From TrEMBL:
Protein name from the UniProt record: Cytochrome bc1 complex cytochrome b subunit
PROSITE patterns: CYTB_NTER
Record's catalysed reaction(s): a quinol + 2 Fe(III)-[cytochrome c](out) = a quinone + 2 Fe(II)-[cytochrome c](out) + 2 H(+)(out)
InterPro entries xrefs: Cyt_b/b6_N (IPR005797), Cytb/b6-like_sf (IPR027387), Di-haem_cyt_TM (IPR016174)
Domain spans labelled Cytochrome b/b6 N-terminal region profile: 15-241
Keywords in alphabetical order: Membrane, Transmembrane, Transmembrane helix
Species, as recorded: Actinomadura luzonensis
Amino acid sequence: MQTGPRTVPGAVARTSSFLDERLGAAPLVNRNLRKIFPDHWSFLLGEIALYSFVILLLTGTFLTFWFKPSMGEVVYDGVYAPLRGVAMSQAYASTLELSFEVRGGLLLRQMHHWSALLFIGGMMIHALRVFFTGAYRKPRELTWLIGVTMLAIALLEGLTGYSLPDDLLSGAGLRVTEGVLISLPLVGTYLTFLLFGGEYPGEDVVSRFYSLHILLIPGVLLALVSVHLVLMWVQKHTQMPGRSRTDANVVGAPLFPSFAAKTAAFFLFTLGTVTGLASLTQINPVWLYGPYSPADISAGSQPDFYLGFLEGALRLMPAWELNLLGSAHAGTIPLSVVVPALVPLGLVLTGMALYPFLERWLTGDHREHHVLERPRDHPHRTAIGMSVVVFYGVLWLLGANDELASTFHVSLNAITYAGRVLVFAGPALAYVVTYRICLGLQRADAELAGHGVPTGVIRRLPHGAFTEAHAPLDEEAAARLRAKRPVPALPAARAAGGGAVPPDGLRRPLGRLRARMSAAYGGEKVPLDGDAGHDRSLTR
């Protein structure tokens, strides 16, 4: 059941009539234009990523008309005097031409870069919103998997675009990419030669990255975005808990005209924000770095934020190697490169992809869920999410350990050693602190549900004691609190002496472990009516 206005606006009726007379599509148009969308600010996070992707496609199309994806050497004779007469690749020369000689080129290039950062950042925050509210649960597991895949592919798209200008900064990042590839066992050398077209730096890496960046990866992303939106449309939108909101309805506004007007305005707001950033804030001034040369290095170089955690992992990892068969001649695996490049990202993305299914296995919950949960109501899941955020944050911060040491006049070794401790201790501490905060917030909710809102009015009881009067919650706030449900858990296996026999699957070692984990993960931590026995005679 969907709730919303029952009358059909004239614009919808006229559009339906026009299409029906020509295509017989009136029922389809009427049904879809009246689709109900819930109204909550957190749902706009996904739209930020979507609209940034649209801006990326538009600005990227403009840039392709002038960018030359070639590593062929030319002598620069453009308008930027400090580099005039310097030998450089055609890719770098065309980037300078775009920046200084094409009308609007610098604005569009910076819009493209800012929207790329906003696109990946929007996806990350949107993924956190989905995770913390449990929006990945049945029937949206496939939608979640597509989102995780899009995030992984977007990181690769960012890497390929970052490397195209062939300046000294992007070349330093490309050198790291080459080091990671060539360190892979068995296939590393072949992949490196395939990508670079020969010995590093080769002649083909820019042209091959260009094909990936403008054709293959955007095509895959566009297809996944389309499927993601179709699934969201078919499965019905989730909604935050509140009054009259159930798993059987959607409370909100129709697609047309309410949601269409709002989302169009939000697209213009996103476009304006990106344009403002590109106009007023300089980003990636490649002319200051100069053309890339394998013989040159730069100090203080940092990747874009979405790859900063990989940089941090590389800087924190000790210089360990693994010699196969006990001999360097049999093959050496540089763990100092392979582990940072594959393990952190692999752990995060694999954990994200498997989490809905692991949680279902742990809780035995196979129901459909359309009403979301507040993060405080699922403390273990929220604590796990925050521990991953802290893990990412520590690696991201330590990706600038040289800048931190230089700025704060601290030993680089001390920062590195502290980072090696924090990368493990930080997530564990975040888990404990977040879990306790969630329980504290649940107790505060129970107090509100049981006693109401403190009014500040102090009353004296007949026997001389003083107490504060409380006012009842408004209906919306009360409904939001009362929407809390215990976290599902497997049925508790009672002792054999109690007359109950655990299911066969819970009698084996793995089953017993599953039952114990389920009991710890699920259940009601703080009952909402835990204060029901207190005296409420003064509640107003």
